[in-house]
Amino acid sequence: MLKDFTLFSGSLPSPNLTCTGEKFNIQMSKCWLEANGYNTSDMRLNSTNSECFALREIVDGTSEMTLHRPLVISDCNTEAETNSSHVTYTNHLYIFAKKFSDQIRDDFVMDISCSEPLNLNASPNVTLGPAAKNGLTADGSYTVHMTAYKDNQFITQLSDSDTLYVGDTIYIAVVIPDLDANSFHLKVASIYASPTDPSSSKYYLLQNG
Length: 209
Known about the structure:
Layout: E1 6-7, E2 16-19, E3 23-29, H1 30-35, E4 38-44, E5 55-59, E6 62-70, E7 79-82, E8 86-97, E9 103-104, E10 108-117, E11 132-137, E12 141-149, E13 171-175, E14 191-193, E15 203-206
Parallel strand pairs: 1-9
Antiparallel strand pairs: 2-3, 3-6, 4-8, 5-6, 7-8, 8-10, 11-12, 12-13, 14-15
């Protein structure tokens, strides 16, 4: 007995990939995938861990399947290669076809990659307050957290209401939480104080790293 089959042809998925400097960001129309024979619940990176699967997200009023995973070695089996100037993170995107007997559509596999320069410069312009933040741009963006403490155990934070005197010792913590420690190290090159923002007067607390 013959049975009718729906054979899908034409264009393949064309996911939108962006690299923010800290994540793979992948986006694909949910409606397009369903209309073209793909299983939207089975779109993932190169891992079967639950966090590596795409989730439905409303973007500008449209239903999209999206993935947001950090650029970290081994996350969803992400790999990295480093040359003299850049580190490149690579993975595979899988979009599996529906498995109905009356539909024929090949599974889709796509290599994805994000490259970041090895030398990144962050210049937070901050007041001496707790957890000050600023962005860093180098083909992407990271968040820099800078916090001042009263003690060398990094427990009691300084605030704008605290009074400091010449000769006082303070302790500064600078952290980029999403930075891949396997490929990057954070170096604080300089810290300075100024009477106003902006100001031509700079009083350096730290210079030349």
